[in-house]
Amino acid sequence: MLVMLDTFKTVKNLRNAGFSEEQAKSLTDALIEIQAASLEHLATKTDLMLTTNELKSEISEVEVNVRGEIANVREEMARLEGRVNTKLSEMEGKFDKKFAEMEGKFDKRFAEMEGRFDKKFAEMEGKIDSKISDAKSDIIKWVAAMLVAQSAVIAALVRLLSH
């Protein structure tokens, strides 16, 4: 609330306090100047309303700008997500290809090793069969020789005993 200085009353009070007419008027003029200078810097309701409206307008502009920036950030994030997904798909494809290559190499080496194992096993089977055949032949020869020898011993014994 703005209170105006009552100059007449102020001059009267100063005169009653012992000031001369001229001193009271000079002091009152000085007080009016001080009050005017102080009031010059006070904001009125109109000033406050203008400032409020300006601030609301600036806040609206900032909100629009922030929303725009948020939209830009979302678009950029979507682009980055797309790029990341593309890169991941590429890497997955490369991984699958390398894995298939490694699996193929493993299968080939395994087949080679299996073939070598089968060949060695067959060779060993052949050697064992040959050794068994040789052992059978030797046993048959030995048995036949023993039969011949026993027959000769029996024939000799029969001749000796018959004489």
Q: What layout of secondary structure does this protein have?
A:
Elements: H1 7-16, H2 21-40, H3 45-162
Care to describe what's here?
With 163 residues, the protein is mainly α. It has helices spanning 7-16, 21-40, 45-162. It has one domain (43-162). The protein contains three helices and no strands. α1 (7-16) packs across α2 (21-40). The chain starts with 6 loop residues before the first helix and ends with a helix.
How many strand units?
0
- Order of H and E elements: HHH
Distance between the termini: 174 Å
The rounded Rg comes to 63 Å
Helical fraction: over 70%
Structural class: mainly alpha
Runs in which pLDDT lies below 50 for 5 or more consecutive residues are: none
Biggest pleated sheet: none
Mean pLDDT: 92
The number of helices is 3
- How many separate structural domains? 1
Q: β content, as a range?
A: under 5%
**So what's the overall shape?**
rod-shaped
How would you describe this structure in keywords?
mainly alpha; 3 helices; single chain; 163 residues
Short characterization:
The protein is built from three helices and no strands. It has helices at residues 7-16, 21-40, 45-162.
